Amino acid sequence: MTRQVDRMVLLAASIEQAVAWKGEHRERARFAAGGTDLLLQTRSGKLKPEVFIRLPAVSARVVVDGATLVLPALATLADLAAHPLILKHVPVLAQAMTQIGSPQIRNVATLAGNLCNASPAADSAPVLLVYDASVVLTSVSGRRELPLDQLFLGPGKTALAQDELLLEVRIPLPPDGEAAFFRKFGPRGANVISSASFAARVKLSGTVVERAFLAAGSVGPRPLRLKNTEKSLAGVDVASLAVRPVSASAQGEAPGDKTLPDAVLSALGKDISPITDVRGSGWYKGQVIERCMQWLADRLGGSEQ
């Protein structure tokens, strides 16, 4: 016989009221915006909140504050993905957000929820990491800003204090002349959790990589910046990253198969630590990120295949 659990739902009229209630109920309460992950985890018994604090609806009022793009994290993914300022300055983020779940989910799910769920497979995270995004957290004690790469501690774990709410995402406006890319891989073409994902932001000087920002999802305990791989690309001519034929006897590959320079492969091996789970083997996920790097080299070299 299943024991009936009594829960209380509080409908906050404002963010300030929601935060005050969280300060009162603390670990007994959970904020609920879209609730697409929260309700599933509650029904499964993974989470056992006694109080749900229903957050008020937030409009997608994206603004430029000096040299920073400010996103209301509690706006829905659908509204943010369609916002003209995001499409103008960081269109690759809009691309990533439109690949989260289904249209029905994106119409209620929020950017804050995608990040605070702290899944290694969060699709918005790799793109935000390559743009050096930060998050603004609020509580009854005040506000603080935290670099996004310090938010994720491990699967389902964040640096948020018990009473904090993720309110904003702040992205430094990218300079002109950069190229940005995002790729997501899964067993289906849509409405699927990533087996692996990859984001890149690259500045070329002619054909030489001036700077590169790389990140990946589902290949470690949290979304990761690939900092060793970034360093291995600095000052490298794109042509040297492209296809390098290997012999037929090399690991069973056919002549003409692609491979990356050893220095890049070595750096990539230091950055990622994929595990085998229901969405793919560790070997498969590692291969996916290697292929993403090859795809990136082809795109930068103007020879996408």
Describe this structure in words.
This protein is of the alpha+beta class. The chain has three domains: 8-54, 2-Layer Sandwich (Uridine Diphospho-n-acetylenolpyruvylglucosamine Reductase, domain 2), CATH 3.30.43.10; 63-172, Uridine Diphospho-n-acetylenolpyruvylglucosamine Reductase, domain 3 (2-Layer Sandwich); 178-300, Enolase-like, domain 1 (2-Layer Sandwich), CATH 3.30.390.50. The chain is 30% helix and 25% strand. The protein contains twelve helices and 14 strands. It has helices spanning 15-25, 38-44, 77-81, 84-89, 91-97, 103-106, 111-116, 124-130, 227-233, 238-241, 262-271, 282-300; strands at residues 8-11, 29-32, 51-54, 63-65, 68-72, 134-139, 142-147, 152-154, 157-158, 165-172, 178-185, 196-205, 208-217, 224-225. The chain has a five-stranded antiparallel β-sheet. Strand 12 and strand 13 form a beta hairpin. The longest helix has 19 residues, at 282-300. The radius of gyration is 21 Å and the shape is globular. The model is unreliable at 245-256 (pLDDT under 50).
